[in-house]
Amino acid sequence: MSDSESASLPFRHVAVIGLGLLGSSVARAARACLPGIVITGYDADPAVRDRARAIGLADTIANAAGEAVRGADLVVLCVPVGAMGTAARELAADLSLAAIVSDVGSSKASVAAALGAALPGHRIIPAHPVAGTEQSGPDAGFATLFRNRWCIVTPPADVDAADLARLVAFWEAFGARVETMDAEHHDLVLAVTSHLPHLIAYTIVGTASDLERVTQSEVIKYSAGGFRDFTRIAASDPTMWRDVFLNNRDAVLDMLGRFNRDLAELEAAIRAGDGEQLFDHFTRTRAIRRSIIEMGQDDARPDFGRADHSRAGKETVSG
Amino acid sequence: MSDSESASLPFRHVAVIGLGLLGSSVARAARACLPGIVITGYDADPAVRDRARAIGLADTIANAAGEAVRGADLVVLCVPVGAMGTAARELAADLSLAAIVSDVGSSKASVAAALGAALPGHRIIPAHPVAGTEQSGPDAGFATLFRNRWCIVTPPADVDAADLARLVAFWEAFGARVETMDAEHHDLVLAVTSHLPHLIAYTIVGTASDLERVTQSEVIKYSAGGFRDFTRIAASDPTMWRDVFLNNRDAVLDMLGRFNRDLAELEAAIRAGDGEQLFDHFTRTRAIRRSIIEMGQDDARPDFGRADHSRAGKETVSG
C-alpha cells in the first residue's frame, strides 16, 4: 500500500464481529471499495469462522473477538441486536480507546444503551445500513449490498465531529448515502418501513400455513397471486427478527396499533359493500410506489424484474 | 395458414373483451403461441382501443363488443369482475351458441352467476390465470405472462368434456399449467393467496402515508427495509381490486378474521417479551418460501433478483 492510498482511507484496520449476511457484506465491500485496508473478522460460531476462512472473507479470521479487534481503528458489530451487549463485553479488554465502535443493527436506542454500558469511555457511533436480503450466513453477503442504499447513523450528542466524518466516509465508500438522526426517531421510522412489514409478512405466512380447507400445496401453487411476495420477507433470519421486536417494542406496537385501526376500516368497508371507500384508498396508495422508484429505492421493472416475467414476449406484438 | 396448422388449434377465432394488462397479454400470447388464430379485441374505453390498434394488439379492434365476438368460437372476458355481467349483456345478441365464453377474473362464484344470468343457454367456463403484475393498461401486457403459472378453470357441473378440453388446450398453449376446481373452493384459495395479501398491502401503505411523526419522504427513503415490497402490490389497479373485495367478500372476511387472530397473538408475544414464541413462529414461516421456489413459483435469487442487488460484488472476495 502506498502512502497516498493509506492517507485517503478513513480507517486503516476494520474488525467485523459477526459474519452473517451483513458482516460478510461489510467485509466484502471493504475489500472491494477500500483497497489497502486491513480486515479482520470474528464470529461466535466456529463453523461460520471456518467458512469465512475458506472463502477468504478477511485477512484474518480470529478465534476470539478480542484477537480480531486488537489494533483495529474501526470495529463494526454485525450481530443480532439482542447480542450486541455480550459481543461488546467480549472484546472490551482488547479494544483501543482510539477505535470507533459501530454496528449495523436494525434498532438503535437499545443498541446505544447496550454498547454504552459494555464499553464505557469508548467512541461509540451506532449505525444502520437499510439494506439486506432474505438470506443469511457468510455466503449470502455481497460487496454491492449497500450501493445506493441509505445508511442511518445515530451519533450521540457529544460525538467527535472528526470521528463521525470518518464513519460517514466509510459507508460512502461502499456507495451508501448517509443520513444522521437521533436513535429514537430512527426506531420510529424503521418501525414503519421495516419492522411492521416484517411482522405482517410473518403473520400472513403463518396464517396461510395453518388452514384446514386450503392445503399447503394449494397455497404454494397459487402463491403468484400476491402471497409469494410476503414469503420472501418471512424467510428472513428468525434470531435477528426476534431481537428486533424485543428491542424496538414500543415503536412497533405504536405502528401496529395504527395498522390495526386502518385494517378495521377497510374491513368495515368490505362488509358494508362500500366500493367508493375501497376505490379511494386503493388509488391513494398507488402514488407512493412511483416515488420510491423515482428515488432509486426499487427496481422499476414490473414485478421487481422477476426472471419468470421476461419481457421478451412483447416483441411478438409488432413482429 | 395451412390446414394442418388450423387443425391443431383449439379455437379458430378468439375475441378478447377488455384490453388491459390481462386482456392484452391474452392477445399477445395468442399471437405468439397459436399462429394462425384470428384475434379480435374490444375495450369499452375508446382511448384503449386506439392504443390497442396503434400497437397492433389484434387483427381487428372493434368499436363494439358485439362486433368483436361475431364469428368467434372463444370469447375471453378480461374486465374487472364487477363489470362481467354488463360486458356479457353487451355482446349477448351477437354471440354464437357454439362459442365458449370464458374470463380471467380473480373471483369465480360471482362471475359464474353474472355470466349465467347474462348469457342463458351459452357455453360458459370461467377461468382464472393466477398471473399478473402491478401495472395496468394495454401496454403493460406481455406474451409470456402466463408461462409456468397456474390457470384455474372452474367448469359448471354439466360442462361438455370436449369444450373443457379445448379451453385447457388454449391455456396450455400459453405455457400455463391448468387445474380445475369448483368456484367456491377457488374463491377460498385465492382469498388467502391473493386477496388478503392485497388487502394487507393496501392497508400498510395507507398507514405509512398518514403518519405525523414520520414524513412521507422518510418512508420512501428507507423503504428498502421491507416496506417497498408492499408498495408493488398496493400499486395494482384500484377498480379491479375494489371489485374483487366486493365480489369475494365472505371468503376474504373469513381469511382476514384468521389473520387478525394470528396478528393479535404475535402482538401479545411482543408485549410480553416472549422471544421463544416469536422465534418459533419466524422459523416455521421460513420453510414455505423454499417450497414456492422449488415449485418454480418464484425467482430463487435473493430479493427477487432485483437489479440493484447485482451479485457482481461476490467476485471481489476471492479476487
TrEMBL record, chains A, B:
- Catalytic activity from the UniProt record: prephenate + NAD(+) = 3-(4-hydroxyphenyl)pyruvate + CO2 + NADH
Q: Where is this region: Disordered?
A: 299-319
The pathway noted for it is: Amino-acid biosynthesis; L-tyrosine biosynthesis; (4-hydroxyphenyl)pyruvate from prephenate (NAD(+) route): step 1/1
| Alphabetized UniProt keyword annotations | Amino-acid biosynthesis, Aromatic amino acid biosynthesis, NAD, Oxidoreductase, Tyrosine biosynthesis
- Name the EC number(s): 1.3.1.12
Alphabetically, the GO molecular function entries are: NAD+ binding; prephenate dehydrogenase (NAD+) activity; prephenate dehydrogenase (NADP+) activity
Is NADP one of the keywords?
A: no
Give start and end of each Prephenate/arogenate dehydrogenase domain: 12-300
- Entries under InterPro entries matching the protein: 6-PGluconate_DH-like_C_sf, NAD(P)-bd_dom_sf, PDH_C, PDH_N, Preph/Arog_dehydrog, Prephen_DH
- Record flagged with keyword Metal-binding: no
> Single Gene Ontology BP term?
tyrosine biosynthetic process
Q: Which family does it belong to?
A: Belongs to the prephenate/arogenate dehydrogenase family.
- Protein's name in the database: prephenate dehydrogenase
Naturally occurring in which organism (per UniProt): Novosphingobium nitrogenifigens DSM 19370
